[in-house]
Amino acid sequence: MFSRDSWSEIIQALSSNWFRTLLTAFGVLWGIFILVILLAAGNGLENGVKQGFSGMATNSMFMWAQTASKPYKGLPKGRRYNFKIGDVDAIKQNVPNLRFVSPRNQLGGFRGANNVTRGLKTGAYNVYGDYPEIIKQQPMDITSGRFINYADINDKRKVAIIGESVKTGLYDPGEQPIGTYIKINGVNFMVIGTYKKKSNGGGDAEEAQKEIYVPFTSFSQAFNMGERVGWMAITAQDGSSITKLKDQVFDVVKSRHSIHPEDDRAVGSFDLYEEYSKINGLFVALNFVAYFVGILVLLSGIIGISNIMLIVVKERTKEIGIRRALGATPWSIRAQVLLESIFLTIISGMAGIVLASGVLALVNYFMEGMDTSDMMFLNPSVNIGVVLIALLILIVSGLLAGLIPAQNAIKVKPVDALRTE
């Protein structure tokens, strides 16, 4: 089966009509090329989206107070309430497996308000009152100075960390903001750091730099917030799902604020982990679609190889008859046809893999010189496992393509084959 004569016969059979063989091989080449490119594109999209979540604690949720929609304990529906700083400790004590519970207050709203001044310059920025843990829950790079620490919290220091866009808007080019003062709603804060971060989920990257962070305690004191908490960022421990823990968190808050246990509208939330899990599920579906479409295209090429092998067997009917008359076994005839089919399939398929690898290398080469920090597409590639799977598909496909022609070959009777013109 693997003798030199067998391989010479294979080369001669396939090269007797080069144009026909090349057209047939192109079907398999194109099918495996499409399969690899689709998988790489899906991987590139996944890398780009996950880059947007890099540094963020994805096992998190954000929670805020809304309006009670049910009466409870003599209190009417439609009443408003606010979280309190005491809720933070209550949640930590009563809900296990939580890593961070960060209370937050905010001035501004989306795209801020005219609330920050420095000299004659005025800016519209979001201002957050936070605890130090927030930097571990949201991606942020400190470009100069430092972030909030617990000494700032305990001493209620009026200090601020500003975004790079805030620095550009309030300071002259080349001016160093560290140690200077900005005025937020009439209250002076000293700048102790600057940051830069990318937008989350492909949003406005410029807007992500237009934020100011101050200690939660000094924020509450400066802007008369008292014990109120605007909202919370809550992160679960690794190995625990915040999605499974959030009902316990809601129960603690409802109990402390006399909210009906079945009032699902009283507490608003955004479950980042749940949304992140949906994205992961989307990429699983995309990989399935890539395999499905790629294999269908590959199947059309396999059908072409099967057809060409039927023609080859038909053309070699007399040769097969002579071999049978000289004592060749049905298995040797079948093996020869299957080997020709597998050889043609693997050679054309590997050519498709090489072509796809070249295209991906070219794409990655051009992307190396680009700023991909805010792109939704990054490093399209396939791992060695995909190549091995493709190789397995090729081998199985070659066997299937040659099976019917091989069976037809061994059905030829020597006497009938010798009579064929």
From TrEMBL:
The chain crosses the membrane at residues 21-41, 288-313, 342-363, 383-404. The keyword Transmembrane helix applies. GO terms for cellular component: plasma membrane. Residues 21-249 form the MacB-like periplasmic core domain. It is found in: Cell membrane. It holds the Pfam family MacB_PCD. Residues 292-414 form the ABC3 transporter permease C-terminal domain. Keywords: ATP-binding, Cell membrane, Membrane, Nucleotide-binding, Transmembrane, Transmembrane helix. It is a multi-pass membrane protein. Its main location: membrane. GO terms for molecular function: ATP binding; transmembrane transporter activity. Belongs to the ABC-4 integral membrane protein family. This is Multidrug ABC transporter ATP-binding protein. It comes from Marixanthomonas spongiae.
